[in-house]
């Protein structure tokens, strides 16, 4: 690009816009459908589809373990896959502040391109807007994903059933604490970083080998506690968790203690809940442990009928504590 900053001209729709599209976005997102440069994308998907949209405003845009570009891909791909679907296509829209460094924009685009390849999806259409300085904070990204549902029956947040096992794919709170530490310039342990990752390959392996997964859900904003409250409310069941079974890295426990945060309410961007009949729990854990994104998977609780709509945390001493849904935003602009 001829400029080292993003100019208003790049959002004009004229020659400057065309240069930005061809020399940056097409260069890194290249695929036959996108290269047609139509106003919309044409594609075929057989059967029932899963569709999700999300906007990403994370601050800071670069953090240990990821950035706003890879996060935008991972977040939408994972949401599409939570219905037992194979993600196929993404749309991508950028809103960029005038003066944003072109080198940073290219870093975001390259990261997004690598995440797309890893997930096995294609960005088939998109949009770019440049707004005056101060009208937006650096860069926001919106993505929409579409995928083909292959699970039958389809996992859904209202299908948790009494007797089900509650599994989690790994440690809690990594992403939320990493973003907060980076934003505030707080020095954390070197191995604390975002867990941002595309989970679709592991999720599809589970639904292909397990006869009936009742619920998949990624505990993003609001964390594990809030996500489970959403599930128990939708399914009208109770979830009883064993506190000692919930995996949290010691570094995250320490950081949360210093900052007054609860890791059960911190966002995760590369973990998922799997709720399924207890008889399939061991098989599911074997599949998860064989994948790099599920090596720390474990059973953390069960679904009961004791207190419908509630999440109960059983402490190591046998005490019982109600885990409510997060009231407000514990940490804004986490994704």
In short:
The chain has a seven-stranded mixed sheet.
Topology:
Layout: H1 15-29, H2 32-35, E1 49-56, E2 62-63, E3 66-67, H3 68-81, E4 85-97, H4 102-119, E5 122-131, E6 139-149, E7 164-168, H5 174-184, H6 200-209, E8 215-217, H7 223-235, E9 238-242, H8 250-259, E10 273-277, H9 281-289, E11 298-304, E12 311-314, E13 320-322
Parallel strand pairs: 4-5, 9-12
Antiparallel strand pairs: 1-6, 2-3, 4-6, 7-10, 7-11, 8-10, 9-11, 12-13
Family: Belongs to the HypE family.
InterPro entries: HypE, PurM-like_C_dom, PurM-like_C_sf, PurM-like_N, PurM-like_N_sf
Protein name: Hydrogenase expression/formation protein HypE
Describe this structure in words.
The protein is an alpha+beta fold and 335 residues long. It has two domains: 8-149, 60s Ribosomal Protein L30, Chain: A (2-Layer Sandwich); 164-322, PurM-like C-terminal domain (Phosphoribosyl-aminoimidazole Synthetase, Chain A, domain 2, Alpha-Beta Complex), CATH 3.90.650. The chain contains nine helices and 13 strands. It has helices at 15-29, 32-35, 68-81, 102-119, 174-184, 200-209, 223-235, 250-259, 281-289; strands at residues 49-56, 62-63, 66-67, 85-97, 122-131, 139-149, 164-168, 215-217, 238-242, 273-277, 298-304, 311-314, 320-322. Strands 8-10-7-11-9-12-13 form a seven-stranded mixed β-sheet. Strands 1-6-4-5 form a four-stranded mixed β-sheet. The protein has a two-stranded antiparallel ribbon with strand order 2-3. Strand 12 and strand 13 (320-322) form a beta hairpin. Helix 1 (15-29) packs parallel to helix 4 (102-119) and helix 3 runs parallel beside helix 4. The longest helix has 18 residues, at 102-119. The protein is globular. The two termini are 28 Å apart.
């Amino acid at each position: 690009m001829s400029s080292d900053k993003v100019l208003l001209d790049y959002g004009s729709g004229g020659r400057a816009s065309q240069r930005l599209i061809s020399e940056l976005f097409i260069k890194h997102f290249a695929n036959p459908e996108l290269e047609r440069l139509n106003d919309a994308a044409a594609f075929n998907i057989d059967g029932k589809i899963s569709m999700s949209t999300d906007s990403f405003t994370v601050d800071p845009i670069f953090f240990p373990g990821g950035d706003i570009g890879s996060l935008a891909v991972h977040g939408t791909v994972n949401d599409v896959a939570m219905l037992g679907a194979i993600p196929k296509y993404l749309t991508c829209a950028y809103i960029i502040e005038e003066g944003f460094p072109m080198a940073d924009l290219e870093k975001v685009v390259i990261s997004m391109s690598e995440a797309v390849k890893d997930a096995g999806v294609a960005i088939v259409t998109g949009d770019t807007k440049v707004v005056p300085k101060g009208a937006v904070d650096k860069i926001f990204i919106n993505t929409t994903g579409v995928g083909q549902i292959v699970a039958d029956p389809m996992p859904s947040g209202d299908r948790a059933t009494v007797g089900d096992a509650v599994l989690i794919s790994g440690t809690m709170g990594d992403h939320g604490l990493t973003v907060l530490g980076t934003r505030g310039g707080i020095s954390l342990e070197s191995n604390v970083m975002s867990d941002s990752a595309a989970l679709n390959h592991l999720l599809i392996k589970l639904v292909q080998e397990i006869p009936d997964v009742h619920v998949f859900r990624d505990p993003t904003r609001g964390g594990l506690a809030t996500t489970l409250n959403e599930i128990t409310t939708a399914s009208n069941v109770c979830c009883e968790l064993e506190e000692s079974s919930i995996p949290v890295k010691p570094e995250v426990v320490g950081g949360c203690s210093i900052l007054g945060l609860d890791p059960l309410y911190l966002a995760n961007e590369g973990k998922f809940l799997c709720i399924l009949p207890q008889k399939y729990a061991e098989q599911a854990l074997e599949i998860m442990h064989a994948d790099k994104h599920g090596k720390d998977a474990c059973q953390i609780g069960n679904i009961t009928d004791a207190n419908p709509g509630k999440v109960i945390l059983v402490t190591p001493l046998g005490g019982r504590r109600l885990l409510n849904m997060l009231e407000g935003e514990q940490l804004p602009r986490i994704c």
